[in-house]
Write a structure and sequence with these properties.
This protein has helices at residues 15-29, 38-42, 46-55, 66-74, 92-97, 107-117, 144-156, 178-196, 209-214, 353-360, 364-370; strands at residues 10-14, 33-36, 60-65, 81-85, 102-104, 124-130, 160-167, 203-207, 222-225, 248-253, 256-260, 265-266, 272-273, 278-283, 306-309, 312-317, 325-328, 339-343, 376-380. By secondary structure, it is α/β, with parallel strands linked by helices. It has two domains: 31-230, Alpha-Beta Barrel (TIM Barrel), CATH 3.20.20; 248-380, Lyase, Ornithine Decarboxylase, Chain A, domain 1 (Beta Barrel). The relative contact order is 0.15. The chain binds pyridoxal-5'-phosphate (PLP). The site of pyridoxal-5'-phosphate (PLP) has 14 residues, from helix 9 and strand 9. Pathway: Amino-acid biosynthesis; D-alanine biosynthesis; D-alanine from L-alanine: step 1/1. Residues 247-380 form the Alanine racemase C-terminal domain.
Length: 391
């Protein structure tokens, strides 16, 4: 069915899917859910995603940066809120005023916070982020005794309350990888050591989406789920199917249809040349809107990404441009203005984020998170926020 579209390309986000996914994740994990809405909710909108996740039963909201967390508060997202990226100049006092949990990723970082929190009437809420083997953010193992000692001292001095201790898995999408066992054991060692230092955090957490679904032993007191909240599979090929529903659909109007003769080259560099007569269509979105240029690589036409028009998959031909790309219509002539389903759930026959990821040699996370640019975003199935129901 074609859906005439005169406006620009559009991202449609189904908030009922996010609510339902939050409910499923909460039930499956059986522990509090930290709904991760960093990077503008993986391209779905941070505020709307946070609100829907909470309506679906999420207990906490998680962001990467302090600034993202402050923006959510300013937009009226209340309740437990955790962030884990902060530079030395981040506004820790504003975060504490807003009741946001900040994460210290090392002893030096904790000292920076100590300076920022000195003289406050109320203790700030601080979580300790540990590196148990990812070698990314987080306090390294050799530092843990000093970190826990300083954390306990600050707690006694009323500077902060250590509300959480946590870490992040490196190989969660590969459950058989030995790093998973090693990291979980290192985290257990850390918790025992923290306990010896007198720390009694409310929340000990380890899991992202893949761990939450695939490794029950590592759910601890909460799971931090991002990609699964948006209905995408955190570990393609592993047994993660609990009925998650993808929330994002991307539509664009078909702008033009034209004939190609054998030998006609398409787009910059003529990386695709028609070897027979065909028809092609123009889709007005490109890498400026987050459509990866890798979707159609020179010499890899057979693995090019596809879009769906009138229920038929149509491969991208030639390079994706900044504002547009060309698809092969194989001699058909869909009406100008026909709906091009650029991305959508498999239930709608669309190329999924996973299909795009495979065509581009990346992960579904990157596909949805980059989508945006000049596209508008429309929300379906919003439920009024508390106090907004107009009754
Ligand atoms: C992004 C992120 C998550 C969420 O990961 P998913 O794989 O999307 O569930 C959880 N924790 C931290 C620290 C993150 O940076």
């Amino acid at each position: 069915m074609s859906r005439p579209l005169l406006g620009p390309a559009e991202i449609v986000v189904d908030l009922a899917a996010i609510r339902g996914n939050a409910r499923l994740l909460r039930e499956t994990a059986g522990v509090p859910l930290v709904a991760v809405v960093k990077a503008d909710g993986y391209g779905h909108g941070a505020v709307e995603s946070a609100r829907a996740a909470k309506q679906g039963g999420a207990d906490w909201i998680g962001t990467a940066t302090v600034e993202e967390a402050l923006a959510l508060r300013a937009a009226g997202i209340d309740g437990p809120l955790l962030c884990w990226i902060a530079g030395p100049d981040s506004d820790f006092a504003a975060a504490a005023d807003a009741g946001i949990d900040v994460s210290a990723h090392g002893l030096g970082h904790l000292e920076t916070m100590a300076a920022a929190f000195a003289g406050r009437a109320e203790p700030a809420r601080v979580q300790l982020k540990l590196d148990t083997g990812m070698s990314r953010a987080g306090s390294p193992r050799a530092e843990w005794p000093a970190l826990f000692g300083r954390a306990a001292e600050g707690e006694r001095a009323g500077l902060w309350r250590i509300t959480g201790i946590w870490t992040h898995p490196a190989c969660a999408d590969d459950p058989a990888h030995p790093a998973n066992d090693r990291q979980e054991q290192a985290f257990r060692d850390a918790l025992a050591l923290a306990d010896e230092h007198g720390l009694r955090p409310e929340l000990r957490h380890f899991a992202n989406s893949a761990t939450a679904l695939l490794r029950p032993s590592a759910r601890f007191d909460a799971v931090r789920c991002g990609i699964a909240l948006y209905g995408l599979d955190p570990a393609p090929g592993e047994a993660t199917d609990v009925g998650l529903v993808p929330a994002m659909t991307v539509h664009a109007p078909l702008l033009m249809v034209k004939d190609l003769a054998p030998g006609d080259g398409v787009s910059y560099g003529h990386h695709w040349v028609a070897d027979h007569a065909t028809t092609v269509g123009l889709v007005p979105v490109g890498y400026g809107d987050g459509i990866p240029r890798h979707a159609s690589r020179p010499g890899a036409a057979d693995s090019a990404a596809t879009v769906s028009i009138d229920g038929k998959r149509r491969p991208i031909r030639g390079s994706v441009c900044m504002d547009q790309f060309v698809v092969d219509l194989g001699g058909d002539r869909p009406e100008v203005g026909s709906d091009v389903l650029v991305l959508g759930p498999s239930s709608a026959g669309g190329p999924t984020a996973q299909d795009w990821a495979e065509a581009c040699g990346t992960i579904n996370y990157e596909i949805v998170t980059r989508i945006g640019g000049r596209m508008s975003r429309t929300y379906l199935n919003a439920e009024p926020a508390d106090g907004e129901d107009g009754a």
